[in-house]
Write a structure and sequence with these properties.
The chain is an all-alpha fold. It has two domains: 181 residues, Growth Hormone, Chain: A, CATH 1.20.1250; 178 residues, Up-down Bundle (Growth Hormone, Chain: A). It starts with a helix and ends with a helix.
Length: 383
Amino acid sequence: MRRLVLDRNLLLVFGVTLMAIMSVMSLLPALPLMIRELSIPAGSIGWVIAAFSLPGVVMAPVGGILADRLGRKKVLVGSLVLFGLAGSACFLARGFLSLCLLRAVQGVGAGPLSVLAGTLIGDLFEGRERVTAMGLNGGVQAVGAALFPLLGGILAHLGWNWPFLLSALALPLALACALRLRNPEPRERQDFGSYLRAAWGLLRTRRALSLFGLSLGTFVLLYGVFVTYLPVHLHERAAGPMEIGMILSAASLATALAASQLGRLSARFGEMGLLRSSFFFYLGSMLLLPRLPGLWWAALPIVLFGLGQGLNLPSLLTLLSGVGGLENRAGVMAVNGLLLRLAQTLAPLALGLVFAGFGLAAVFAAGAGLALALLAVAWLVLR
């Protein structure tokens, strides 16, 4: 594992992964300041996030197709440059409309980034090294999710727009990728129709459809139940912002711990074993959360959820990266990116209907039911 951690190509992929999550997580502490300084209605502040994430619904699959057709590095470098320039320009925005427009342009650049990070790991590594690299990348992502809000909060003390300057880090990263990334590129140049037919043949197999279904269900649990309604649950238990942040950080640390050990765990239990285990962790978390007697007891199911994430997402990405070869891998990973964006957008709305009709306990009950269904798919359908 030490050799992998020091691998120059993998370090560059870590940078790409951090860019993919930075421009949402680092802004969260500044949102209240934007409401005040830009006179944004509180009900509209979500567009600062949505304007960034919605282009990814289109750009994740488009970026994957372009990476298979034009090459990984060209798409990666271009995406990082657009991400860095548009994100840095948000620092100069003086109105809500101009800010949202720049965020949308930045979102176009961000759309392919997470897709390409997983694709490059699949291209660069095989076998146990691929599993270990995916796990390390998942650990880096979890640590970034824990640290970026803190860093964004520090910068927000200087002004609402200062966290946007973090986007400028994408520009030296783009230069480093252009000059130092050594990755295999697709060599076979099929005509576009042949490429689409080959990709469609891969995507419609039972294995691929099962993996995509598990991925979508996992993202619904994450963005619909955990991200959206867990803070509401903690607030009802009399938790303040600091307590909520401390408890949630436990999930990120648990994710980082589990993901960093994925190579060793996979050698003993296999990717499928870890994937199935993750749904047991999710199920336990969903069942325990509404039933614990006190606030700090919530840390236990939250850590369970974090451990599930650390086992689940890197294992899923490893299995998906094996569905397609070098000529089609980015397209396969792009479908997974599309599912992530759809879940980010639609899962909070769907669980919101459950919450409005039946209350908060029903949200966690729905999450438990979904986790059980995903476990059944992983155990009975996916081989």
